[in-house]
Design goal:
Helix content: 40-55%
Order of helices and strands: EEHHHEHEHEHEHEHEH
Distance between the termini: 9 Å
CATH architecture of the largest domain: 3-Layer(aba) Sandwich
Number of helices: 9
Shape: globular
Number of strands: 8
Strand order of the largest sheet: 5-4-1-6-7-8
Structural class: alpha/beta
CATH topology of the largest domain: Rossmann fold
Radius of gyration: 16 Å
Strand content: 5-15%
CATH class of the largest domain: Alpha Beta
Oligomer: single chain
Largest sheet: 6 strands, parallel
Amino acid sequence: MSDSAIAVLDIDGTLIDSNYQHALAWYRALRSVGETYPVWRLHRLIGMGGDQVLTAVGGEDLERRVGDQAREQQGKEVDALLEEMVPLPGARDLLVAIKERGHRLVLASSGQQRHVDVFLDKLDARDIADDWTTSADVETSKPAPDLLHVALKKLGALPDASSVMIGDSVWDVKAAKKAGMPAIVVRSGGFGDDELREAGAVAIYDTPGDLAKALDDTPLA
């Protein structure tokens, strides 16, 4: 890898502790339109884009019947939970450590603009990140690689071995694989190490802070 790399970091669940709140928000949103699915099933889909969750959990019929309504309500349910979502241990330290090594940094989110704004403020990341994305930037979300392509394009780059994805779910790893990028993962997504490795993760850490301390053992050395 070249001396200077690009780190593409997922925000939701990787830097901000938000996965379980998102699962609960989907549960409540679906209940509001008369549909009930176990929270654990919804949790397994967090990290996948909101445009794909309903089809994944209940098929195309569910998406056709309540998709837009459920997504709108899910956004409102997330609004109500934002205060509970806080940076994971060492999240900002990781951003600083990456930049101190001379790498460029883009925060990749398929979240709604208003939620991404809140997370950027919670991380105090606006002056650290070179750029960031929101749901407005992509038509197809993870596990499709589009979000990563857009993130790199914002920095005028193409996916290659000198860019690294940092995420928390199998959906992040699969998207990175499709984009031809290595993926480093933190465990906050709630997936098993075996699942993450099978999806293609090159390294797994407990928290962003643990990864920050171990950066010299990664492609971002």
